[in-house]
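Anyone up for a design puzzle?
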């Protein structure tokens, strides 16, 4: 299915998938915010698990499809480039929140734990990249370790939410996670069905987009690393952008930040899934250095974000914090480096 596509057809399919992903992502923010209130999960956990998982489905399916098709560079550049661009999206959400610095207002123990988990997972990807090329059934030992650490981190985040040993100081700019009374009027079954339907639309779009992206990379000659990191990673990450902006506008600031951080943590599992799907050995060793650079950049961007949540800079209305500027600078440096090395 969808083989032997022309370049024009691939471009049209890419535009169509972009529209589907954008619309579905917009709706997801409202659905998950109501589910967080109806189920009692809270915005931090619902954002990290439900929103993070659903908005990542298109990228996950794309990376797995690319690995199965023996396109490891596309699979890994999509996964790793997506983590970086989604962190960049917090800068845009920060601009939308006009009242105060977003990282100040949305600081929470849940988001800090999720950020720490993301740092550990990204570090493991680098360990796999530079460790010996050992495999068992063509799967590198770091792959199951990524899954175990991710699940342990989620359990730790949930326990920390119930019995936190640290709390951010409450200021006039802090936005607490208060359940919306209107959410109680919505049917829980309807919310779950809507969530699953939107998630299915995102997953299908990722499958179609992988085939279109492979054709674009081949026909244009710009390479899978550029297409993966700068095109498919951005397109499949659009749900994170629209859901974060929508969450900020709804006043669900913790959900906005948690959706990005939790989505990034889940996105590291793209690497694990791609390694299982790739039959050419360790996928960690099948990617070029310019793609591996995105892991280091994502580590740096996440660390800057966490410093911002701990420092909690208090900028005036309409101004963004130092962390947003630094994150944008890191991403721009990565783009320039990728374009330069690919040229």
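Challenge accepted. My sequence:
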């Amino acid at each position: 299915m969808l083989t032997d596509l022309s370049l024009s057809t691939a471009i049209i399919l890419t535009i169509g998938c972009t529209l589907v992903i954008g619309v579905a992502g917009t709706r997801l923010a409202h659905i998950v915010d109501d589910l967080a209130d109806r189920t009692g999960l809270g915005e931090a956990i619902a954002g990290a698990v439900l929103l993070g998982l659903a908005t990542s489905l298109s990228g996950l399916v794309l990376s797995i499809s690319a690995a199965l098709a023996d396109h490891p560079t596309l699979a890994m550049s999509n996964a790793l480039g997506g983590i970086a661009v989604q962190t960049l999206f917090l800068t845009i959400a920060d601009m939308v929140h006009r009242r105060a610095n977003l990282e100040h207002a949305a600081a929470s123990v849940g988001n800090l734990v999720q950020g720490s988990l993301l740092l550990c997972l990204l570090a493991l990807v680098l360990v796999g990249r530079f460790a010996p090329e050992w495999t068992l059934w063509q799967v590198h030992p770091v792959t199951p370790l990524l899954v175990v650490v991710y699940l342990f981190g989620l359990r730790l985040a949930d326990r920390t939410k119930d019995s936190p040993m640290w709390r951010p100081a409450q200021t006039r700019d802090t936005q607490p996670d208060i359940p919306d009374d209107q959410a109680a009027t919505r049917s829980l079954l309807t919310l779950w069905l809507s969530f699953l339907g939107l998630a299915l639309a995102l997953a299908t779009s990722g499958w179609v987009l992988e085939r279109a992206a492979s054709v674009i990379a081949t026909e244009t000659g710009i390479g899978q690393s550029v297409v993966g990191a700068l095109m498919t990673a951005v397109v499949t990450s659009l749900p994170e952008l629209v859901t974060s902006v929508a969450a900020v506008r709804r006043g669900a600031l913790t959900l906005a930040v948690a959706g990005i951080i939790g989505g990034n943590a889940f996105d590291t599992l793209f690497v694990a899934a791609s390694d299982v799907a790739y039959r050419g050995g360790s996928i960690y060793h099948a990617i070029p250095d310019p793609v591996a650079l995105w892991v280091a950049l994502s580590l740096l961007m996440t660390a800057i974000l966490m410093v911002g949540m701990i420092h909690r800079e208090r900028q005036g209305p309409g101004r963004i914090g130092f962390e947003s500027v630094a994150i944008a600078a890191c991403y721009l440096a990565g783009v320039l480096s990728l374009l330069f090395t690919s040229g």
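A detail worth pointing out: The mean pLDDT is 80.
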